[in-house]
What we know:
Layout: H1 5-14, H2 28-43, H3 48-60, H4 64-77, H5 83-99, H6 103-116, H7 121-133, H8 137-150, H9 155-167, H10 171-184, H11 189-201, H12 205-218, H13 223-235, H14 237-250, H15 255-267, H16 271-283, H17 290-302, H18 306-319, H19 324-336, H20 340-351, H21 358-370, H22 374-387, H23 392-405, H24 408-420, H25 432-438, H26 442-451, H27 462-474, H28 478-490, H29 496-500, H30 516-524
Helix pairs in contact: 2-3, 3-4, 4-5, 5-6, 5-7, 6-7, 7-8, 7-9, 8-9, 9-10, 9-11, 11-12, 12-13, 12-14, 13-14, 14-15, 15-16, 16-17, 17-18, 18-19, 19-20, 19-21, 20-21, 21-22, 22-23, 23-24, 24-25, 25-26, 27-28
Amino acid sequence: MKMSIRKFLLVLLIIPASLSAQSYMDNPMVRIAMDAYAAQIRENPDDYMPYYNRAKDYFKYGEKELALADLNKAIEIFPRKETADLSQAYTLRALIYQEKGNFIAALNDFNEALKLDPQSRFSLIGRADLLYENADYENARRDYEILLRQDVRCQEAYLGLARIAYHENNMGLCNDYLEKAQNANPTNPDFYVQRGLFYESIGDLQHAAEDYVHVLIFDEGNNQVLVLLNDLAVKAYEQVVDAITMGIDRVQDKGFLYFLRALIHKNNWHYTASINDWNTILSEKYFYTHSIFYNRAYCYMHLGRFEYALDDINMALSLNGESLPYHVLRARLYRIAGEYAPAEEELSMAATFNPVDVDVLQQSGILAAEQGDYEKALRYYNETILNNADVPYSYLLRADAYEKSGDKEAATNNYELIAATPEAVPSVYSLRGFALAKLGRTAEAETWIQNALPASMRAVTGEEYYYAACLYALMGQKQQALHYLEEAFKQGYGDYYNVYFENDSPVSLEPLRSDPDFRMLVQQYSSIF
Length: 529
């Protein structure tokens, strides 16, 4: 179970934030601390503190199972007179059990924590939230009300009561609690994060976006909220853009919000709108950095404006030559222009930063294949798969290279491998349907794409509709391909390069491009490019 942001904020009250789980062991200070814990445990295995402190560190770095093992040992040998620390140990273990979906164990540990420290704010919030998540609204309400008796300004309690009121269909009371929560501490950014999450959970995406933007206005570096806002933009692009636009109108220092809006546009295939914001940033002299030129170059490339893109990526690299994606983008532009030697040089330069990077290896293979050197292309695709085995596109590229080289048996084997790969949830990005179509199993391919476009469960993105259009084009079903391409355009999918120029990928609209109806449809939606 993924940790909710609300739970994450509770954990931060118990354990200060530090390094990410991915990088913590790369830090020499962390290694020293971990070695020190191990030495203390060897010296005195009955001392609870090294286990307890190491458990907190493990939890902080995302190592939940290791944290659980240490907490079990610490709680076993904890001196019962150390009630405050023992209470927090039970609370921390309860949070781990809650993430693992073990409601009974989590509730028991919260109860033990509160026996030791009945006034523990952290334990009460944790137990109340656990009870709420399991629809025990009566007992959750009791804990939230205890919190308010302790502190009439407790925002977590008001938010909890608001959520209960919503689930009891009492919107008047819900809004009243939300207002009280805000009034209790209107400058607390965590409140707006939590309220944004609540709004998002009930489908009020406009207010959710406004709360996330409100946090970012005062804390540009809040990565948790940046992730939330970017994720929200996938299903509520217009609401997120509107919220950022309102933020721009409210603040004097507008540069960051223009930058944020430009990225939201770019990440959601609205490249013309993104370029407009990059232009504003430069004309108003908010920033002058290599990343602006890289991002604008990326947008220009995907609009098919290759000369502008090349000018911008050259400027980006003149300001910062130490960037793998910058060299990859310039290599793509050189390849598009048919300048294969400089494209290869750029990919060689990119490889100096990371020789097994997926983009570097894939683009090297595509470059070789475009020149007809399929043996070389296959070496790159094999290396990509060897070092990044979970990237479906590499397998499709390899199968395509075998097919174009005339090795039909190897191509079939690769398509079979893709088609046989299990999916927990069908996704266009697994590319199974393309392999099925190549194998002639078109009925299965059509079932796959319909299952991968769950419009009733969530918003389908423009890119997902584009993939559907490409699949139907591959299967020779023109009307369905045009239907899904129009759906992509309606979602604002403005990738003119993919629509009109992409020929090197097996995922392509190339079979449609000579059709007058295709050209008419693209012309009809030309304003998005």
